Amino acid sequence: MDQYVVFKSHDQFFALPVLLVKRIVETDQFISLPDVPDFVLGVFEHQQHMIPIIDLRRKLFGEFTPTTDATKVILCEWQDQHLGLFIENIVGINYLEETNYEAELSQADLKRGYIGKFLKFKDQVVISLKLDYLFDNNQSQALTDSVAELEKSKEGAGDTPTETD
Amino acid sequence: MAKKNTSFGKKFKWGLLIPVGITIVVLLICYFAVIKPVGNTGLNHSFEIFSIVLIIIHLLFALFVTSKAGQSTGPEMQQMMRVFDQVSNGDLAGAEELSQLKIKNPIIVKIKNSFQTIINVFKAVIVGMKDESQRLGKMSQDLTKTTSKTKSSVGNIKDTMSTIADSASSQAAEAEQTSNDMKELGGKIEKIHAEIERMNGYADTSRQSNQKNSKLMVDVSQSWQTERDNQSQIVKEMNDMNKNVQSIGKIVHLINDISEQTNLLALNASIEAARAGDAGKGFAIVAEEIRDLAEQSGQSAKNITEIIEAIRHQSEQMVTALNDSYSSSEKQTETLNNAIDSSKEVSEIVKKFVESIETVKSHINGISKEKDLVAKSVNSISHSITETSAGTEEATASIEELYQGLEQFEKNVKEISKSAEIFKFQVENFKI
Q1: I need a labelling partner for A60 at 20 to 30 A (CA). Which of A1, B205, B230, B305 fits?
Q2: Among partner residues B264, B268, B274, which is closest to A3 by beta-carbon distance?
Q3: Rounded mean pLDDT of B191-207?
Q4: Domain of B331?
Q5: Mutation to test the A interface, candidates B257, B265, B271, most A Cβ within 10 Å
Q6: Looking at domain A2-158, what is its CATH homologous superfamily?
Q7: Do the Cβ atoms of B132 and B377 come closer than 8 Å?
Q8: Residues 286-315 of B with CB under 8 A from A
Q9: Is residue B285 in a domain?
Q10: CATH for B383
Q11: Residue A7 pLDDT > 90, yes or no?
Q12: How many domains does chain B have?
């Protein structure tokens, strides 16, 4: 049993392993980027890093997440990559059981790229997001590049010491 | 012999003895006045003889004269007597014969002449009487005509008087009727007068009630004004309360924010604790508790917010209701003011009404007085008509009497006419 951060998007429970999550912040103020897909809301500056923010609902279900008091941004870190997920609500940090549902879905050829595992939270089924899908997105290559450029220009202007990825 | 005595008796004029009587009386006076007082018997005796002789001589003379006169006038007297008879029969023309008679006796001539003179005078009288009788006849005819005309006129007057009497009696009846009508009218006027008095009383009561009404309405208006002030005060206080509630809401919002921040902090603390591994386990429990507390306080803040929202909603409704009430009270105030104005107008109208009633009253008083005068006049008219009626009746009676008198007069005139006829006839019997 591992610890997960459980959250909601498109009225569906999702989970991320707690060790991947660096911080949860409450904001909707992002720096907009040109020539990026519409699910990229912009970048957010956190601890000397420019972190791209993705609207999870837009990416997975094609609809923008409406901004409320409960909307939060989950800042994640995996293999020296940073990413922010704009989600509807944080449910909590819990220990979740694993299931074998994803194997049945694979047999039925319904498993999508973002589904990592199916987890059990109380009576609810929670989808554990597949981190490869989130971080190894080819479509976001240009995004990564532009983020890198942005960081460089910021280094030059701010004259602050930075870590390189 | 007897026949002779009779003729003598006839012929003898007893009037010749009157001087003898006178002589006897003178002798008696002389005897009693002159001879007897002397008392001489011789003288008495001589006077007695003288008296007897004188009386005898006188008697004889008288007898002689009588016989002498009868003998001398015999045939002439007879002629005279014939003429006299003719004349006495009305044939005055016979008197003409007297002038042809030749009479020697101067006494008879004198008598004849005197008689002729008398006859002539008588003729003249008869002629005059004839004329007069003709005039009298004519006059009596005229009188008859005039009388008959007068009678018919008086008859007309009688009819007219009867008509007048009828009219007078009908007028008297009408005047009586008018008098009764006037009395009735007077009674009605009195009733109207009484009714107007009552109306005046009602109007006065109405005025007083209206004044009371006005006063009450003013009182109501004042209370209403106070009520409105209170209402506006309540609205103001409600608005203040709303603001306070909003302030509370802001505070609660702040609390909510704090609880959310706390929640976030607790979440991040939990993440940090998880990343710390076993070392962070205790901290993770604390962070979880903090998170529970933050959620609880957030929930409470939400509840409070809902309650405040409900309160705000209710207070808004109350303010709306109060505002509605205030605006309707404004309308009511206006209505009340209108009612007060109307009441004032009613007061004015009632005042004018009372004035009009007073005027009517004074008029009716005048009418009442005049009614008495008119009733008096009608009474006097009735009285006059009654008097006139009585006078007319008297006049009718007088005319009736006059009519009867006239009838009598007519009769008399007829008699006069008849008498005149007779008179004429008698006069015409004389032959001149």
Answers
A1: A1
A2: B274
A3: 88
A4: 171-393
A5: B271
A6: CheA-289, Domain 4 (2.40.50.180)
A7: no
A8: 288, 291
A9: yes
A10: 1.10.287.950
A11: yes
A12: 2
Q: Is B260 an interface residue toward A (CB < 8 Å)?
A: yes
* A59-68, A152-161, B410-419: least confident range: A152-161
Q: Which two tokens stand for residue A156?
A: 């030059």
The strand order across the sheet containing A40-46 reads: A21-25, A72-78, A81-87, A49-55, A40-46
Residue A74: closest CA among chain B residues belongs to which residue? Answer: B268
B79-91 b/e (C-beta count within 10 Å ≥ 16 → b): bbeebeebbeeeb
Q: Is residue B236 part of a domain?
A: yes
Cβ of B268 within 8 Å of Cβ of A23? The answer is: yes
Q: Which residue of A has its CA nearest to B265?
A: A24
The domain boundary, picked from B47, B64, B81, lies at B64
Residues B117-131 pLDDT 10s? 888 888 888 888 888
Identify which of B260, B267, B288 has the shortest CB distance to residue A69: B260
The mean pLDDT of A12-20, rounded to a whole number, is 91
Subunit contact A18:B268, Cβ cutoff 8 A: no
User: Which tokens belong to B33?
Assistant: 């006045």
Strand duo A115-121 + A2-9: pairing: unpaired
Q: Stretch B365-371: mean pLDDT, rounded? A: 84
| B120 in contact with chain A, both atoms CB, cutoff 8 A | no
B427 found inside a domain: no
Q: Assess if residue B156 is contained within a domain.
A: no
Could you tell me if B324 and B193 lie in one domain?
A: yes
Chain A residues contacting B, CB < 8 Å?
A: 3, 5, 18-19, 21-26, 69, 72, 90, 92-93
Q: What is the chain B residue with the closest CA to A92?
A: B267
Q: Are B235 and B284 in contact (CB under 8 A)?
A: no
pLDDT band at A161 (very low <50, low <70, confident <90, very high): very low
pLDDT tens for residues B134-160?
A: 888 888 889 889 888 988 988 888 888
Most confident of A107-116, B15-24, B351-360: B351-360
Compute the count of residue pairs across chains A and B with CB atoms less than 8 Å apart.
32
How far separated are the first and last CA of chain A, in Å rounded? 31
Q: How confident is the model at residue B4 (pLDDT cuts 50, 70, 90)?
A: very low
Least confident of A19-23, A83-87, A112-116, B107-111: A112-116
Question: Is B271's CB within 8 Å of A24's CB?
Answer: yes
Q: To 5 degrees, how large is the angle CA A26–CA A32–CA A33? A: 135
Closest of B370, B25, B331, B326 to residue B186, by C-alpha: B370
